[in-house]
Design brief:
about 20% strand; globular
Length: about 300
């Protein structure tokens, strides 16, 4: 059974936050929209939730976190529990990826998104993340390519006065690698980080320079093809198309169904022994609560 929300949007993607623990302190982190998370979900509960999702037409699962998913010791077990026929991917800061890429691939993970906001010397990376781990991230990207966790998508949050001058550097980096796509992401408004880059200007520049522009179904966002580099622009703020084409249902790390990234007032708690029909009903209710944030 495929579920549609009251706005006729089909839900086919489950985005599961696995932890709030992190080894970095990025200045813009929105923690996946989680507010005061409690104890994280068990691998067993996550596996059951994924099985329920498949019953309702979920075809892809993204593992992510307000923190770093690779800090979970049972991550490989979680990936192995993904139902057959469902594509799984992972968002990571990449600092721990090199040592674990092969095991993740063997467990069934299809690909990774790596958060990387600068290619410049360690000082700039430390300014953004609080640590000097740039070399580790670059090694992780190479390891992911080597084992086939591809395409690797680089998530670059555009930060005014910090990394706006690096777009051409990132495109050159993408061209130098196989199976790598750049995603330029608009800064969210969850905390006190005010470095909002000029996404309008970037997108206009890409549109003028691109040899081909493709509109993706997901969020109706654009992919720009420039001399061997693929660049996507992700614009969640004040964007009615982003909301109109949203196909995601989110799960917080402490076990709540979250119908919208930008809202925390309509969560459904699935902790406390919800199983079987009770869990299915919670899934239906969460989809029923979905409403475009920007209309």
């Amino acid at each position: 059974m495929v579920l549609k929300d009251p706005y006729n949007r089909t839900v086919t993607n489950l985005r599961i936050s696995l932890t709030q623990r992190c080894n970095l302190r990025c200045i813009y982190c929105h923690a996946e929209g989680e507010v005061n998370p409690e104890e994280q979900m068990s691998a067993e509960d996550i596996a059951e939730l994924m099985q329920v999702g498949v019953q309702f037409g979920i075809r892809s699962i993204k593992f992510t976190g307000g923190g770093e998913p690779l800090l979970r010791r049972d991550l490989v077990d979680i990936i192995r529990s993904v139902p057959p026929g469902v594509e799984s991917s992972l968002t990571t800061n990449g600092t721990l990826l090199a040592a674990k890429a092969a095991e993740l691939k063997e467990a069934g993970l299809a690909r990774v998104n790596v958060s990387l906001d600068t290619l410049r010397p360690p000082e700039r990376y430390r300014q953004i993340t609080g640590k000097d781990c740039l070399a580790d991230v670059l090694e992780g990207i190479d390891a992911a390519i080597e084992v086939g966790l591809t395409p690797v998508k680089l998530n670059m949050v555009l930060l005014d006065g910090i990394n706006e001058d690096e777009l051409d550097d990132f495109m050159a980096f993408v061209r130098s690698k196989r199976d790598v796509i750049l995603q330029v992401i608009e800064l969210m408004e969850f905390n006190e980080c005010k470095f909002h880059g000029d996404v309008d200007g970037v997108e206009q520049d890409l549109n003028e320079r691109a040899k081909r522009v493709v509109t993706r179904r997901m969020h109706h966002r654009k992919k720009y093809c420039l001399d061997g580099a693929e660049v996507e622009v992700v614009r969640p703020l004040h964007n009615t198309e982003f909301c109109a084409f949203c196909n995601r249902l989110r799960v917080t790390s402490d076990g709540k169904l979250k119908p919208c990234l930008l809202r925390s007032d309509n969560l459904i708690d699935i902790r406390g022994g919800k199983h079987g029909k009770e869990l299915e009903d919670a899934f239906r209710e969460a989809v029923g609560r979905r409403k475009p944030f920007f209309t």
